What does this fold into?
Amino acid sequence: MRSRRSSRTSRVALAVATAAALTGLVAGCGALDKAMDCVKTADAIATSVDKLSTAVSTAADDPTQLNEALNDIDRELTNLDDTTDNADLSKAVDDLNKAVDNVRTAVEKGDETPDIGPVTDAATEIGKVCTP
It folds into this structure.
């Protein structure tokens, strides 16, 4: 299970790194700032999703980590949603919000090991959208 999470996190991180590397080559100043904001937030989301993966695997030891990780993702999504007017990115943010809400509901119902696959998939999509 750990290698699968690492693989997903690595894909998100790779997409973010690629976006950062290519942004300067294809964007003007205003677009560059917006793209860099997207990349930074996508990277923060990838980090938060990784924390969520860790929290799920250690939920028996410290269940509060699940909620903290979900709150981190919510915070980053709010930042990203406030700075974008890109329809594809807005859809990816909405998808990730729904996935996070589903995990939060599962946790509230007592599931200590909720399926976070949809969260990881949606975070990967944000990484792709943020790649120029």
Notes: The chain has one domain: 2-129. Helices lie at 2-26, 29-57, 64-82, 87-108, 117-129. The radius of gyration is 15 Å. DSSP finds five helices and no strands in the chain.
